[in-house]
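User: Okay, second chain of the day. Same drill as before: sequence in, structure tokens out.
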Amino acid sequence: MNKDFDKHRQRAEQTAEKYRKIQQETNEREKKSAEEKKQNDAVQAGKREQPEPPYPDTQLDKPGKEADLDLQPKYKAPDYKGSDKLKDKVAIITGADSGIGRAVAILFAREGADVAIVYLSEHEDAEQTKKDVEAEGRKAVTYSGDVSDPDFCNDVVEQVVNDFGKVDVLVNNAAFQEHAEKLEDITDEHFDTTLKTNLYGYFHMARAVLPHMKEGSSIINTSSVTGLFGSEKLLDYSLTKGGINAFTKALAKNLVDKGIRVNAVAPGPVWTPLNPADRQPDEIKEFGAQSPMKRAAQPEELSPAYVFLASPVCSSYVSGQIIGVIGGVTSD
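Assistant: Same drill. Structure tokens below.
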């Protein structure tokens, strides 16, 4: 063999050795990283640390009361400082007794809004939300009823206008969720309940408030990560959340000339009564662990997004948008 090629061969062997050295360094680094991740898997990106899995594995009876949760959701956002972004506005929030709805009610009040708390039958939770809103120095009234009933939606809006004089913001947030292993397991009653709560309810409430809204008003719909990517065990729920996204965009186009903005927030897993009232105890324990941040969100981590969308000061040029608050970027 030509001695010039001997030189090249030696150089090749040296390069191969360098490859192995880099590989070994990578292996050691990844092993160390994996050990560190195992010790502290969940991601904390906020000012205060949020609860991480494992969560208490107690299943709640539907509709799910926040007062019954062993681990109480964090909803007060103590580090959030109000600045009159919603000064003297009136907001209707469905599903405001607990979870995301409660957290939104608190921040709306902190920003200067009076709040109509619409809920199903969780009276104790609703009264707590009312107290929390009043503690922020704003008015709150509770209204119990079923948003799948158009008569209730019409009546509650009429009553809110009588009680507060106007309606500036609607947050459609009430929801029904029940998992199923197979499509065949979803009965007509189950399917109808999901659609009538999650879709009909949003439609009925929006239709009822629109005659009272004016330029600068806002409608915010609560969607879900399942409406973006689907969920194999939440077939009907995913269908409704995808429908909410389409409804949001269509209604935004319909109302743009009137200056009424329509947007949606699509949460990932959030620690509220909704999921512990659906999942089996072993699933509740690891709820949210598959999200990019390896934990469920707390309601106070979502509520600022609703303030942003409700306030003309923040989002006067934002309409027809689906804002994902899902703990990172996912391809699921």
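The domain at 87-325 is CATH 3.40.50.720 (Rossmann fold).

User: Thanks, on to the next one.
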